[in-house]
Amino acid sequence: MTLLKLKRHNDTELLLTWSDGATTTLSLQHMRNECPCANCKGETVLFERYEPPKLPVFTPGMYDLKKIDIVGNYSLQPLWGDGHHTGLYTYDYLRQISTPIAAE
Ligand SMILES: [Zn+2]
């Protein structure tokens, strides 16, 4: 699955266009909450799951998307308003967490 187009849909959502013709939306809040990085999601180490320490639920600017870098043609790395930028979202993962728009 390849992401063909990514744009800001409105203040709180992104609009993603996919190589199979589907269009999905993804709210910035949901995207940040589903951040796949080790700090946010924990990490599998030697078959034991490492759970990250509980962090404050909200930090100022955490849902504010500053920019997105394309990494290796298969994933996106967003920079958030609170400086968080270690999450690498593969296209497959983005497709999974975004919501399809019904075709007309
Ligand atoms: Zn993260």
Q: Architecture, according to CATH?
A: 2-Layer Sandwich
Q: How many E strands?
A: 9
Structural class: alpha+beta
Helical percentage: 10-25%
The CATH topology annotation reads as: NE0471 N-terminal domain-like
Order of helices and strands: EEEHHEEEEEHE
* Cofactors and ligands: zinc ion
Ends apart, CA distance between termini: 22 Å
Strand order of the biggest β-sheet: 1-2-3-9
Which sheet architecture does the biggest sheet show?
Answer: 4 strands, antiparallel
Strand content bin: 35-45%
* Structural domain tally: 1
User: Overall pLDDT, averaged?
Assistant: 88
Which radius of gyration do the C-alpha atoms yield?
14 Å
What general form does the structure show?
globular
Structural summary, described in words:
With 104 residues, the protein is an alpha+beta fold. It has one domain: NE0471 N-terminal domain-like (2-Layer Sandwich), CATH 3.30.2020.30. 16% of the residues lie in helices and 38% in strands. The strands form three sheets. A four-stranded antiparallel beta sheet has the order 1-2-3-9. The longest helix is centred in the C-terminal third of the chain and has 7 residues, at 91-97. The two termini are 22 Å apart. The chain binds zinc ion. Zinc ion (ZN) is lined by residues 35, 37, 39-40, 84, 86-87. The site of zinc ion has 7 residues, from helix 2.
